[in-house]
Amino acid sequence: MTDVRSWITGATARLGDRVEAEMLLLHVLRKPRSWLFAHSGEALQTDVQTAADALVERRAKGEPVAYITGRRGFWTLDLTVTPATLIPRVETELLVELALARLPVNLPLRVADLGTGSGAIALSIAFERPRTQVLATDASGDALAVARRNAQRLGFNNVSFAHGDWFAALEDACFDLIVSNPPYIEAGDPHLTQGDLRHEPAAALASGPDGFDAIRRIVAGAAAHLAPGGWLLFEHGWQQGDAARALLTAAGFAQVFTAQDLEARDRVSGGSRGS
What are the pLDDT digits (tens) for 166-204? Predict the structure, then answer.
């Protein structure tokens, strides 16, 4: 019978990643990571080892860990994810930070999250600003169902949901801030056929020959749904900052900026509608 330490060593050799090996085993055991420190020499039951080995094989074939476990941490939340949604990534937390900086804690403001996916951005904002009403939208009914389940499981009552493509889901509503992590990869980018991206929904990743089809629509339509002084913020690729600022400026936005992520790469751009 294999013990925990030996199994992790073997799985790490198979995957090349100890953290992923630990995550898969802990998922089978339904234990927190802290459990490992006191139980590394404990023997694994045969059924546990068989189940964990099966997950390692799935990961070795390229399936993302988040889809295997059905979970991904984002901000301070533990989110359900499925192949209908993008896998939330840490760089997107910058978008949340920038949104919160423009949302005073004690005001009953309105926020729209376009293309919410798992609900990561919308729910993080709703958690940090409980007086703010957040509308999460998505063109994918399957993705919206995942976001809804996350909101229900986490107990949020200041988030609502609307099914529709970008601004079609907003009807004539107006907001103090609009956020989005839209598709922004060039349709022919070879990265789309590599790594975890192979398994994620293509419509949530790629957007036209230059990656800007969705961003152009968002920038063009945002002002009609923003209150005076309201902000539009969106994530984009690390080489797209200049073009994003040019679009915002041409559309009449003020205070146009681009913020960089922890790797000093352009990541989020935005602007204000003005008063």
Answer: 999 998 999 999 999 999 988 888 888 888 888 888 888
Phi, psi dihedrals of residue 133, rounded to the nearest 5°: -95, 125
For residues 138 and 162, what is the distance between their CA atoms, to the nearest angstrom? 7
106: exposed, middle or buried (Cβ count in 10 Å: 0-12, 13-18, 19+):
exposed
* Structural domain spans, the chain: 4-61, 69-272
DSSP-based helix, strand, coil % in the chain, nearest 5: 45, 20, 35
pTM score, whole prediction? 0.91
List Cα–Cα distances, 247 to 96, 211, 219, 257, 269, in angstroms: 22, 13, 7, 11, 10
Tokens of 54: 């099966």
| Contacting residues for 48 by C-beta, under 8 A, at least 6 apart | 28, 29
Which superfamily is assigned to 69-272 in CATH?
Answer: Vaccinia Virus protein VP39 (3.40.50.150)
